Amino acid sequence: MIGVVKMETVEEIKKVPVSGSWDVIVAGAGVSGVFAAIASARKGASTLLVDRFGSPGGNIGPGLIAGGSLSGWPIPHMYRGPFFGIPREFIERHSELGGGSVPPYKKSHYLRDSNIATHVLFEMLEEDGVELLLSTYACDPILEGKRVSGIFLENKSGRSAAMARVLVDATGEVDILRRAGAPVIRPERAYNEIDQHAPTGMGIYFVLAGVSWSEYEEFRSTCPPPGREDLSWAEEVLGRTPPPCLVSRARRAWEDGEFRMVQEVEGLGHIGFHGTLKEVPGEEGLAGAMFNLKTRWIDAETQARVDAGDGHQVSLLEARLRMYIFELSRFWRKYVPGFEDSYLAYVAPFLGSRGGPCAEGDYVMTYEDLESGRRFPDVLYVFDHVGEGLKSAYRGKWTDLPYRVLLPRGLEGVLCVGRNASCRPDTLLRSRSMVMHMGEAGGHAAALSVANNATPRELDVKLLQKSLLEAGYYLGSIERLVELGLSSPPR
After folding, report:
1. What CATH number is given to the structural domain containing 39?
2. Most buried of the four, 71, 95, 233, 421, by CB within 10 Å?
3. Across the chain, what does the average pLDDT equal?
């Protein structure tokens, strides 16, 4: 019998073929990465975009969360416009194909809008000459000392090396930086005091079909309030009370051994669904819900244990959540009027995160910066973060986003965009409109670095700021632009 060989490490030595060389490689085709790639290509840099999924868009594409910045209401607090540059072009094209977006303030529809978003992004990437490599994992960086000069890729063809003058890490959890050994900021429990979605804030969207909303609404409106015994059971066993019309049914399913509304995930705490399903706008018979790992069943301590950059933890959670969602759909089908003919129609292909590990940059953005409306000489654009998860006392003012949050400390030749950017708490720079614009800014920076034979850290920030102004970005008032040396005093 052959015994199990226990080893801590295995040394791998092999020659890897070089698949090509590009000016800029963007790792991750999520909300930020796609705009970085498009911007880089438009600025004249040969650009490769790599993603592990078969379609671009991340959260607003295959992730199915085409709300927020693609929703059916104006967002005047986010940006003057309210969108600039490539994000504005994307929103307009999305709207022209029937998407609920801004403008023209049409009501959103996740199923419809996510597919439109993906198609528009495919078109834009193709039109601007971005080379796209899908169903491919961006793996270890290729390092020359402290400079990233490329990246290893893995797909059906095996392992290959792709060389780049500048790498943009848009992986969401700074996968490339972490593998390069760069310093990383990890989520902390205390962040929950600022943002209820922090730390990490993972979730996955799913849809049920075959729902009779008229029957469900009649049941919900006429359902008697739960008795004291059922309420006591919910508090003792579940730790919280689900919607009133479901309390007795949740208890019956639990005691009959059919469904446990709260379940344990090994080593990571408990998961549970405390909310309700909502009708997908404009679609009779469809119900959608975001299953948030951050729910009222989950305390900040449990959230802090979850590491969105840990492959083993993500695997455990994703397997358990997908099983839980199916079991939850059976519970609704059997126990809730109006759902008798319902079935699980769709579950997003990945477990998303609002936060997670991010780069420790040359500057770390904080809520204190937002509270004071801080100004920075290396401003990329002005923003205001008013998120639904923020504690009201922390809702901020118009604030400059500094270029330095994109520059990871200790590494050259690389930029971090999107949730990867340097901040505390981990959910500070997560809004979709924020990461769209940050992606374009990062793409400008990457292409300009190549054009000026400089690393992103060496790049003259005035060149970047002028490029963004030409793209329609708002960096401040005329007086502020004069102060920054980006405009002449008015006569």
Report:
1. 3.50.50.60
2. 421
3. 85
Question: What would the pLDDT profile of 8-37 be if each residue is shown by its tens digit?
Answer: 888 888 889 999 999 999 999 999 999 999
Q: How many CB atoms lie within 10 A of CB 229?
A: 10
Same domain, 135 and 161: yes
Residue with more model confidence, 21 or 65: 21
The most confident of 47-51, 97-101, 282-286, by mean pLDDT: 47-51
Name, in order, each residue with C-beta under 8 angstroms of 456's C-beta and a sequence gap of 6 or more. Answer: 166, 406, 407, 412, 413, 414, 415, 445, 446, 449
Residue 84 CA to residue 37 CA, distance in Å, equals 16
Domain count, the chain: 2
Cα dihedral 475→476→480→481 (10° resolution): 40
Residue 469 within any structural domain of the chain: yes
Q: Angle 311-335/247-255 helices, nearest 10 degrees?
A: 110
Confidence of residue 200 (pLDDT cuts 50, 70, 90): confident
Same domain, yes or no: 161 and 287: no
